[in-house]
């Protein structure tokens, strides 16, 4: 692990990076969630990644609160009647195993064949709490993803789409195209996603960009418009949660960060301000 080129083999390895923090949170006495499968998914490869990116541990709170806030959006939408969850770039997510979900809920994971094959092998014998399907697909294939969205759109009456940790690796044009494709099926009612400001994007590029660039997974998307970026493409923000404010409420950040968290929340244009938001969007006309 002596060079940045060895940290990540490809973009799918970032799923292991996320699982590291879920595993650590699970092992905390006062953990905010429990993911008993995370440590198994991390494996020896995860230990190597953790060692190479130890300096990034100061942002552990951001990873944890991202998970917590996405969980809350899932819980809320299921309670409102969502009957289908479409998790794009699902990686090593284990929500269909660890959350309390209705057995009749349809959960579809979409990602590259390699990571889903590996995940399926590691979790062999584990039983999900709801109806789980895995779809091997390269989401950069626009025609294939549109065909998938059209097919899935006929299966549910009220679907929630999740793109946790995905959009930052796409260009603005790629995000816009994905948003337009997701807005086509009428049953795709809501979309949970995370975004960063241009200021935070630059900070992350400085701190971990070399590791990701070496794996051909550069960080790209940090819209200056904030959540309003998605409005021209068929989606409007209905809820935006700040991981920093959530971490401050849980006392997971230093006093200085907690003081910053007291500032009024701004969900509009962010500019150079290091800002991130966990956003719930609604399809226009829903």
Report on this structure.
The longest helix is centred in the N-terminal third of the chain and has 20 residues, at 60-79. A 7-stranded mixed β-sheet has the order 3-2-1-4-5-7-6. It has helices at residues 13-27, 38-52, 60-79, 95-98, 113-122, 142-153, 172-182, 198-214, 243-249, 255-261; strands at 84-88, 106-111, 131-136, 159-163, 188-196, 235-241, 276-283. The chain has one domain: Vaccinia Virus protein VP39 (Rossmann fold, 3-Layer(aba) Sandwich), CATH 3.40.50.150. By secondary structure, the protein is of the alpha/beta class.
Topology:
Blueprint: H1 13-27, H2 38-52, H3 60-79, E1 84-88, H4 95-98, E2 106-111, H5 113-122, E3 131-136, H6 142-153, E4 159-163, H7 172-182, E5 188-196, H8 198-214, E6 235-241, H9 243-249, H10 255-261, E7 276-283
Parallel strand pairs: 1-2, 1-4, 2-3, 4-5
Antiparallel strand pairs: 5-7, 6-7
Provide a brief overview of the structure.
The protein has 286 residues and is an alpha/beta fold. 41% of the residues lie in helices and 16% in strands.
Binned, the helix content reads 40-55%
Number of helices: 10
Q: What is the CA-CA span between the terminal residues?
A: 49 Å
Strand content: 15-25%
Principal-axis shape: globular
Low-confidence runs: 1-5
- Please summarize the sheet with the most strands: 7 strands, mixed
Radius of gyration (CA) equals 18 Å
Find the CATH superfamily. Vaccinia Virus protein VP39
* The CATH C-level class name: Alpha Beta
The CATH topology assignment is: Rossmann fold
Please indicate the count of domains.
1
Helix/strand order: HHHEHEHEHEHEHEHHE
**Quick one: how many beta strands?**
7
**Biggest sheet, spatial arrangement of strands:** 3-2-1-4-5-7-6
**What structural class should be given to the helix and strand makeup?**
alpha/beta
The overall pLDDT average reads: 93
Which second-level CATH architecture applies?
A: 3-Layer(aba) Sandwich
């Amino acid at each position: 692990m002596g060079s940045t080129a060895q940290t990540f083999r490809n973009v799918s390895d970032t799923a292991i990076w996320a699982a590291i923090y879920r595993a650590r949170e699970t092992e905390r006495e006062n953990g905010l969630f429990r993911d008993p499968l995370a440590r198994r998914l991390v494996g020896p490869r995860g230990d190597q990644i953790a060692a190479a990116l130890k300096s990034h541990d100061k942002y552990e709170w951001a990873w944890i609160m991202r998970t917590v806030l996405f969980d809350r959006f899932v819980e809320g939408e299921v309670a409102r009647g969502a009957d289908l969850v479409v998790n794009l770039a699902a990686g090593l997510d284990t929500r269909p195993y660890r959350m309390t979900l209705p057995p009749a809920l349809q959960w579809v994971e979409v990602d590259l064949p390699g990571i889903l094959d590996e995940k399926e092998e590691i979790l062999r014998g584990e039983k999900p709490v709801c109806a789980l399907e895995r779809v091997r697909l390269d989401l950069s294939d626009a025609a294939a993803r549109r065909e998938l969205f059209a097919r899935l759109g006929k299966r549910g009456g009220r679907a929630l789409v999740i793109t946790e940790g995905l959009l930052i690796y796409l260009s603005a044009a790629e995000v816009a195209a994905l948003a337009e494709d997701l807005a086509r099926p009428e049953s795709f009612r809501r979309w949970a996603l995370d975004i960063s400001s241009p200021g935070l994007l630059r900070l992350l590029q400085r701190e971990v960009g070399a590791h990701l660039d070496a794996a051909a997974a550069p960080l790209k998307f940090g819209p200056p418009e904030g959540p309003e970026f998605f409005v021209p493409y068929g989606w409007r923000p209905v809820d935006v949660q700040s991981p920093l404010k959530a971490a401050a409420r849980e006392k997971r950040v230093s006093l200085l960060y907690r003081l910053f968290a007291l500032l009024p929340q701004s969900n509009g244009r962010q500019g150079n301000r290091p800002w991130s938001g966990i956003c719930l969007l609604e399809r226009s006309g829903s």
